[in-house]
Amino acid sequence: MMTQLDNLQQQVESLQRTVDTQTAVLKMLVEQTSQNVNAMKATIAKMAQAQQQSLANTNNQMDSMTSQIQQLSSSLDEAKGQIAKLSSQVAQTQKILQTINTQPNPNVPPSPNTAPGAQGAQGAQGGSASAAGPAPTGDAPAQPPPVPDPQTLYNSAYQDYTQGQYPLAIQGFQQYLQNYGDTDLASNAQFYIGDSYYAQKDYKNAIKEYDKCIEQFPGGNKVAASYLKKGYALLALGETSAGERELRALIRRYPSSHEADLARQRLRRLLSRSRAR
Asked: Angle at the Cα of 111 (from 106 to 112), degrees rounded to 5?
């Protein structure tokens, strides 16, 4: 019995040593695992920070690309309209030039009672008078310069817009609306007034002009673009809720338009930013 007890005690002691050894090994493994987990957490945190920075840069690039795409789309629409009318304008201009060149000079009337030599002298004097222009009279009021035809006036203002001459573009489009506010391009002119302010980062005036385009030309082809750029302007002013509301209104009214696709992309980026925070 004593021998069996001794053997049993030895087995217990051996088992205890084995348990102690395994416990030490397990403790070491737990410590190593904890260190690895901490290292992984630090790596994940760095990766998340880098991803957020990359996402912010990507969002900024997407905003810039969206604005460029919108401007290119508008330029394409304008180019299509201009190309369609270009041939008729050239023909009309040629007819006007031919008419001007064939008209007699009213300042040099023929004189049948004058001798041939005198006629030559009078012709020379008349030519000099014609070159200098008619003498002003006190009774004749000063005539205002003629207003250009609608296409010429619009093209001039749009050229200023594409070249970055935004104050001149605003002035030209405003003159177009004053004289030709009931034409098909009136909606475009009103939109580009707002867009000229937007390009100068004058977002408040841009919003006012976009509202005019929406309210005064509800059937124009720039209403969807006005909703989109108005939403962008509100977001640029920090009015996020109002900007999102305008973008959603655009999607509801014009769900299949290119501007609605841009609005959806912008809303997704805003959502991803809010989740990242």
From this structure: 140
Q: Residue 277 carries which DSSP code? A: -
At 65 the pLDDT is 74
DSSP 186: H
- Specify the DSSP class assigned to residue 151: H
171-222 pLDDT tens trace? 999 999 999 988 989 999 999 999 999 999 999 999 999 999 999 999 888 9
Between the alpha carbon of residue 274 and those of residues 12, 52, 269, 277, the distances in Å are 62, 11, 9, 5
Q: Which two tokens stand for residue 84?
A: 């369609």
Would you give the DSSP letter of residue 165? -
Please state, in angstroms and rounded to a whole number, the distance separating the CA atoms of residues 138 and 230.
53
Q: Is residue 149 classed exposed, middle or buried when 0-12, 13-18 and 19+ CB atoms within 10 A define those classes?
A: middle
Which residue bears the tokens 């004593």? 2
Concatenated DSSP letters for 103-131? S--TTS---TTS-HHHHHHHHHHHHHHHH
Q: Please say whether the beta carbons of 219 and 197 come within 8 A.
A: no
For 273, the 3-state DSSP assignment is helix
pTM of the complete model: 0.54
Cβ–Cβ < 8 Å for 276, 48: no
**Which value, in Å, is the radius of gyration of the alpha carbons in the chain?**
40
Contact of 260 with 251, CB cutoff 8 Å: yes
Q: Name the token pair of 209.
A: 């002009």
